[in-house]
Predict the structure.
Amino acid sequence: MSEHPSIAVPTMVSLLVCDQVIDDKLSNKKSAIGLFNTVLVPSVPTRLHRLAVMATLTEISGRTPLRLRLMRDEDNRVLMQTNGHVDAPNPLAMVDLVFVMQGVPVEKAGQYAFELLSGGELLGRRRFHVVIGRPRAPGQTPPPSDVEPDFDNTPEP
């Protein structure tokens, strides 16, 4: 049996990557604006001008340490990270955390992920892709997708 009691790890409800989060002080509601899974950049290396990560946690017991880090999936390299703590009025409370970042480093095209950890344990991760290309003009049709949906909604006979 351990001499130190184990600290309960919070439960992650959601992890979003977006352009910005608007926090309405009157209603205490947050709006995630510009959710994305892909970032289009003209060239690499580059820095992403501005983005936001919003995490919702529950089952927080006492002052809980957190770490948000940006990983490159190709080689699990940590590109940036920040550490902090979170408190909740009670364990059933839902706590929204908003991280606003500027100048996020991107060295090459590929898959990246934001990971949220507590006490070294991974709570969750959100992947996104960095693609080299040019933005489409307004009204321009997107190229056809070569990705087929992985579900079939055809009724069974």
In short: The mean pLDDT is 87. Residues 68 and 116 are 5 Å apart (CA to CA). The beta strands are 11-18, 20-24, 29-33, 38-41, 46-58, 64-72, 77-86, 95-106, 110-118, 121-132.
